[in-house]
Structures are given as C-alpha cells and as structure tokens.
Specification:
The chain is of the alpha/beta class and about 250 residues long. It contains ten helices and five strands. Strand 1, helix 7 and strand 2 (about 140-145) form a beta-alpha-beta unit. It is elongated, with a radius of gyration of 20 Å.
Length: about 250
C-alpha cells in the first residue's frame, strides 16, 4: 500500500506541505489509530484545522469526515486487490524469489522492538536517508551510521537488530568491514546492491541485486541504480504493508 497515495483526482492542487499532512493522516488511518479527528491530526502535523480544511476543499470533499471515509474505502479496495507475484519483483531484482521477499518481511517484523541501522556512502548514503525517513513513518526506529556505535544496550538506546546497506559495487572496503563487525554481534544484514556476486552479497543475511547498468559509468552516462533502488525499496515496503494488513 503506497503512502501517500490514495489517488484523489485533485491531488496535484496540493503543495508539498499539504501533501505531507495528507501523508500523516493516511498513515494514522492505515495504522488504525483511534483518534484521527481534525483537531488531533492538526496537532500531530504541527498545523491548524484551517489548513486541513483547505486540503479537504482542494480535494473536492464537502467535509473532513467525507475525506476520511474515502481514504478508508480506498485502503479496503487496495487490500482486496492485493496480488503480488514474483513477476512484479522480476522487473526490479536479479534472481530474487518470493521466499526471499517474505524473509525480508519477517526481518522487518522482528525489528519492531529494536533499531535498524542504515549504511551507505556518497549517493548510497542519500538512499539510506530516504529509506530511513520512509521507515520512520511506520514506527521503525532508524539510525544512519555504523551500527557498532549503538550495538550495546544502554538505558537510553535499544540494540540494533538489523543493518541495511546500500552499495552499487558491493565491494566498498569500509562497508564490508562494517558488515563483518555486525555479524560478530549477530546483527542480520540486508544489502541492496547493483552488482551480482559481490563480496557484500556473500556476507549478507539477505541480498537484493537491483537491475541496473552494472558496469562503471562515465560522468556523461545516466546511472539508473539509485533511482531504481528507491523504486525497489518502495515495492518491498508496499509488499510488507499489504502483508501486515492481511
């Protein structure tokens, strides 16, 4: 289930701030929060009821309650049409089975009581930041950096239960070292890579190879790995959310 993204016909009328508010309302409804009144959501979004009413009107609803009903009905419709198959992921990953996709769902479920560390360098670091922000919407506690920094329990921190690494080559020495250290602490590792049969793919608990141009690129060539990694992660998240709701 993609957030934001009940497909309202006037969605393009909303600005970035309004889309962010709508996103939080959808997540609250998806998580079955008991209080999604307009005042509660305005407070949660650090906004005002006037702003939310403006969103309601832009989307063509007569009132807030009508919009909430439409969101709930849209979610029901998506759940009834839930039919992921391996073919869906075949367009994104190299040789990933549905059993591996299901294992990813299991690993995420196991992280609800712990923390997820995300590590990537350069552009991969930007992808990790994106993944972290997306996961935080659904109650996951993320950490950008070396998981060894928070591997031991303290009064104010929880253990890292999962490490997600993003690396196009799968050979970056610093990332490989972090993965090796993580395994010593029994931290499971999910790697999202751009190259098959890499060092990181062999060292990871679970690895996904994104279909992209594997060879190094010159500065004048398009690099599809990072964009397709975001699409691939969103598909994994979509699958997780639908399985959770089922």
């Amino acid at each position: 289930m993609n957030m934001v993204k009940v497909n309202f016909k006037n969605m393009t009328l909303l600005n970035a701030a309004e889309l962010a508010i709508l996103d939080k309302i959808e997540v609250a409804i998806f998580n079955n929060e008991s209080d999604v009144t307009i005042r509660t959501m305005a407070k949660s979004c650090y906004s005002s009821t006037t702003t939310i009413y403006r969103i309601v009107k832009k989307l063509g609803f007569s009132g807030y309650s009508e919009m909430i009903y439409a969101i709930k009905e849209s979610f029901k419709s998506k759940n009834n049409n839930f039919s992921f198959t391996s073919n869906h992921f075949d367009n994104l990953f190299v040789n990933s089975s549905m059993s591996e996709i299901d294992y990813f769902v299991q690993l995420l479920d196991e992280c609800k009581g712990g923390r997820i560390a995300l590590v990537g360098l350069d552009y991969s670091g930007l992808i990790c930041d994106y993944i972290n922000r997306r996961l935080s919407l659904f109650g996951f506690s993320g950490y950008l950096g070396n998981p060894m920094d928070i591997a031991s329990k303290t009064k104010s921190q929880q253990d890292v239960s999962l490490l997600i690494v993003v690396s196009k080559s799968g050979e970056t020495a610093e990332i490989v070292r972090i993965v090796d250290e993580s395994r010593k602490y029994a931290i499971k590792v999910v790697s999202i890579l751009g190259t098959p049969s890499s060092t990181l793919s062999h060292k990871s608990t679970l690895s996904f190879v994104v279909k992209s141009n594997f060879t190094p690129l010159s500065s004048s060539e398009a690099d599809y790995f990072y964009g397709k990694t975001i699409l691939a992660f969103e598909s994994l998240l979509d699958y997780y959310l639908n399985r959770k709701d089922q």
